[in-house]
Protein: Aluminum-activated malate transporter 12-like
Organism: Gossypium harknessii
Amino acid sequence: MATKVHVGMETEMNGNGRNGVPEIVKNNWKKRLLDFSGKMKRFTGCLWRNIWKAGREDPRRIIHAFKVGLCLTLVSLLYLIEPLFKSFGTSAIWAVMTVVVVLEFTAGATLCKGLNRGLGTVLAGSLAFLINYIATRSESVVRAVFIGAAVFLIGTAATYMRFFPYIKKNYDYGVVIFLLTFNLITVSSYRVENVLKIVHDRFYAISIGCAICLFMSLLVFPIWSGEDLHNSTVGKLEGLAKSIEACVNEYFNDPEIKENQDKSSEDPIYKGYKAVLDSKSIDETLALYASWEPRHSRHCYRFPWQQYVKVGAVLRQFGYTVVALHGCLQTEIQTPRSVRARFKDPCIRLAGEVTKALMELANNIRRRRHCSPEILSDHLHEALQDLDTAIKSQPRLFLGSKKNQKTTNMLALAAAHAARYKQEKDHGVSLASVKTDSSAFLEWKRKRVGREEAKENERKALRPQLSKIAITSLEFSEALPFAAFASLLVEIVARLDHVIEEVEELGRIACYKEFNPDDDDISVTCKRPPLDVTKNQLPSHAF
C-alpha cells in the first residue's frame, strides 16, 4: 500500500512537472511581450507629444523642415537626371553637401554661411589654380616640394587668421571652406591633369546649391533674424514685468494660498527672468545674422541691431535685481506677515507701476513707436513717496532698541552661566585632590566620570542656545528682511530709468514713429540719423 501510494504520488508529481515547465515559459513570454508592447506605446506617445510640442511652440520649424526637404530634392536632380549628371559628374555631390551645411533656420544665417562658402570657394580655387600653373612649369620633384611648401604656408597663414576677432566673428566658416577647397584641389592636382575642369565643376555645383538655399531662405516663407531679435526683446520686457508683479504679490500673500498652488508647475517668477539672464549669446548671434540681411520691410532705413544688443545688456542688469528680489522670498529669516501688512499697499502699487512701465515699453517696441512722455507717471512717484512715509512712520521696527537690550541680557546670562560652571568644575577638582586614600580616589574617579558626562550633556544643550542667541542678536530688527526687500524694489525703480533711456535711443536711431495714443498707424516722421551713428551701430560688411 505504501509503495503504491508513493509510486502514484511520484507519478502525479512527474506529470505536473512535465506540464508545468512549458506553462511557466509560456507565461514568461506573454509577460515580456506585454511589457514590450507597453514600452512601445509609451515611446510612441512620448515621441508624438514631443513632435507636437516642437511644432506648437514655433510653427516656423515645420516650414523650415519642408524647405530643407524640398532643397535636397532639387539638388538631387543633378544625379537623377541623366543630362545633368553627364555635365557635372560626381561633382554634383558638392551641391548636396552645400544644401546640408548652408541652409539655416533664418535668412541671415543662410546668407552668412552661403556667402562665406562662395567666397571661400572662389578664393581657394583661384589660388589653387595659380599654384598649379606655377608648379607645372617645374620638374616632378621640384613640383612636389613646391606644392608641399604652398600647402604648409597657406594652411598656417589661414589658420592663424582665424584667431583675429573680426575674422572669427564674421568669416570663420569661410576660412574653413577656403582651407578645405584649397587643399583638395592643390593636392589632387599633382595626380590629375585637368585641374581647371575640377575647379569649374565644383564651383558650379556649390553655386547651384547656394543659389537654391538663398532662394528658399529669402523668397519662400522667409524667417528673419532681425524679427526674432526684435520679438525676443519684447518678450524679455514682458517677462520681467510678470516676474516683478508675481514676486511682490507672492511676498504679501498668505502662506495658505502659496501651498494651494500646483507644485509641479514651473515657478512663474523664475520663468519670467530666465530668458533675460540667458540671452547674451543669443542676442549677439541674432544681431550678427541680422547684419547680413537685406532691407525687407516697409521701413526706410536699416534697424541698428547692435542697439538691440545694448538694450539686452541693460535688461540683464535689470534682471539681476529681480533675481535678488526673488531671493528675498526664499530666505531663512522672514519678516512676520503682520509687519509686512503695514507696507503692503505702497509696495504693491509701486510694483504695479513698474510693471505697467515695462509693459508699455514692450508695446512700444512691438509697434515700433517712441515712448510716451508720461511713461513714468505721477502714480509711480506717489507710490515711492507713500512707501518712504510708511517706513519713516515705523522707526521702532527698524531700530529695535528693546530687542537689543533683551538679547544683550540673554548673552550676559549665558556668559555668567558658563563662568559659574567653570568655577564649579575647578572647585570640584580641588576638593577631590585633598583625599589621598584608595576609597577616596575611587570616589573621586567615579565623580569625575559623572561630571564629564554632565559636562558633555550641558555643552550640547548650551551650544544651540548660544547659537540661537547669536543669530537673534544679528536680527536686531524683525523688519530688517523687509528693509532688504524694499531697498531692492526701490533699486528696480532706479534701474528702470536706464532701460527707458536705451529704449528711447533705439527708437531715435531706428526712426520709430512718433507716439500718438489715438493713431497706431502713423507714418515715420523722423529724419535719417547721421551717418557716423549708423556706422557705429552696423558692421562694415552689412549691405
User: Anything to note?
Assistant: The longest helix spans residues 2-57.
